[in-house]
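Hi support team,

I'm filing this because I wasn't sure whether my run with zinc ion finished correctly. The job status page said complete, but I'd like someone to confirm that the output block is well-formed before I use it downstream. Pasting the exact inputs I used:
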Amino acid sequence: MEKQYLAQSSEKQMQEFWESSRIHSADQNPGPLFAVDTPPPTISGNLHIGHIFSYTQTDIVARYKRMDGFSVFYPFGFDDNGLATERFVEKKLEISAHKLSRSEFIKRCLQVSHEAEAEFKKLWQAMGLSVDWNNCYSTIAPNVRKLSQESFVELYKKGFVYRKNEPALYCAQCRTSVAQAELEDVEKDSFLNDIVFTDSDGNKLVVATTRPELLYSVVALLYNPDDVRYMHLRNKKAHVPIYGYEVPIFSDEQVIIEKGTGLVMVSTFGDKTDIEWFKKFKLPYRPSLGLDGKWTEQTGIVAGLNAHQARERILKELSEKGLLLRQAPIKHSVNVHERCKKEIEYMMLAQWFLAILDHKKKFLELGEQINWYPTHMKVRYQNWVENLSWDWCLSRQRFYGIPFPVWHCKGCNAVIVADKKQLPIDPQETPYKGVCPACGSREIVPDTDVMDTWNTSSITPYICYDMYNPHTESVFDDAAKKGFIPMGMRPQAHDIIRTWAFYTIVKAWMHNGIIPWSNIVISGHVLSDAKEKISKSRGNDMRTPQKLLEQYPADALRYWTASGALGTDVSFSEAQIKIGMRLITKLWNAFRFINEHVSLFDAKTVTPSDFGTVNEWLLHQITQTFVKYQGYLERYEFSLALDSVEHFFWHDFCDNYLELVKDQLFHPENYKTDMVNATRWTLYHAGLRLLQLYAPYLPHLTDVLYSAIYKDSESSISIHQTKFSTYQVSYDFAAGAQLMDKVIHIITQVRKLKTEKQISLKTPVKELLITGSSAVVLNDIGTQESLIKGVTQAHALTMRSGTGVQSIQQKGDEWYVAVHVE
Ligand SMILES: [Zn+2]
Ligand SMILES: [Zn+2]
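And here is everything the job wrote out:
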């Protein structure tokens, strides 16, 4: 072993060895299946530090499970079929989807996704993820398109999917309908405008509105039935300013008397209540907004303008006519599209919906059947389900996505769904052959929308099964029948509980009536700290994953990711990476020491019949450590598990054990051969056990050490294929361990006293006086006399019962030390 660990070259070598030997693939690691539903990252931007954080945390769990005896199926995927990717491509190539032909644009998207995915993969390989890269999917690939369409067809047949001309959430910026899960609430400054309408008798009616640009779309005025100011308006009509047409006046309990003037205008559509009133009073549909985000021809003076311009123009017109009485500044919460941050509009479009509102209770029950880590994350899921108010709109009016496998009959509006055998299909490329089965018409047109990208990512368990068992006939039946679903684990971030987690639960229930995975493990995000905000441009640049990997070993970066408690957002911490560096050096040195002393030792040596108290103590401690470690990792508390190994390694192993056995190892001639052999045996096995415990966290270093010291004498070619059941043998030496704790207490006290006097720890002690609380204690300690004398360099040991003091004194050239033990 080299004096220094050459991290850069060693890590690279290890990664190549793992890849070529397929160390991590499920078929190389027999056992019960543990399948990981890896989050497919969205191809929507550059790599950042967050990309290595949560993925490494998942890898720690995967590596742990593999050593715990599971056949871990750990695939990977890329989500590259949605609006996020479109936007990324438009920005990167400085093009607009609307200005290219559809096929040309899709070609560019595929090319950019392909390049970005290669970059992503390189990074994760460099971080040492134990993913099986032979099982890698892309959500735009033909097999996934097929599954996504198949899911649609099956759920359509089961009656969960319906098509309706419904008011839906619409983003005028992205020119597509969106789902409730894609909305964000934002506080915005606005004005409440008092606008003058008139009643049939020419009396003024003052209406307060935040959306004057929708004046053309006004279809009614409303007041609260208890509002005495307006009761006389019952059954009357109002005259809309500028546009000069009449609308009915109704009363409704939902109108808040105290808000504005208590008189509200209903337009199609200004907000969600407008939609409720539209349905309740069967109002006409008078849209202002066109699909292109511009105000339509019919809106006259504001035709061709966007929402903001239209508002300014209408207000100017009203003001000039003396019909704008007042503008009160307000702050209110509005819905914006999470992708582009533009305010959400409402639009009537024929859309595909998945019926979810009817099954809220079921979804809450399913949430209870899944183990949530950390547990409080379940509340977020429950809140989301309870607050659902829209069915899931699946239609998107975009280009780069998975099309609906559907044609429409122009004659009778019948929906013609593609046969499963035809999938994947793009109905815009493949015309429907034949006539409408309902009316015989030959005028059949393709559906031109694409599916919400979550329609595909919500079936990742099925996509994974398709890779796990590529010969299956019917993925949606088999995945559950063969026990692949529920999967072992879904790792994901907390901000997509309402989308990815929720939709996956919905789909698994609709397809198979079960939960998609038994455990969901929620990671936090990496926050930028205050310092970074100050020097943002420079700071961000320094912290790209690539730059960090040039500077630090992947194992040190992994050490930082493991320090974050599960589900908690953490700051990037270079200090933590440096602690990881120190650990790597300390481990390297400790294992060089082990190597030196076990190289003469035959690993096949039988387990000693008598370990001796020191070795018993170490074996007892490492057993206890493993129990804690396993307890934590079973609850996905990887940072606490690491803490327990750290405590054992630094404190028990390095500070105490190695100090206690050093003399035996350097001067074996002074000890009984059996004793020295027992110590070598213990050193060898404790080292092996330690490597296993650190392996999920520092996979490169531990495997380098394993191959240097253990590979030749053990049966596995990599530490990552060893099992805990082989090496983490349980030892219970409680009595010996208790005694050693006392001995270590004595030794620690002597060390401390010497350090206080600033003398070397090797300084001989003329007499060490130990006072003890009882004769029994002293009697026990007496059995370890030679050990205590050896480590403390004491010539003589005196023991006396009673209360004692701790002291160190120099008489002439000689030192006298006194310590107490309970
Ligand atoms: Zn948008
Ligand atoms: Zn027809």
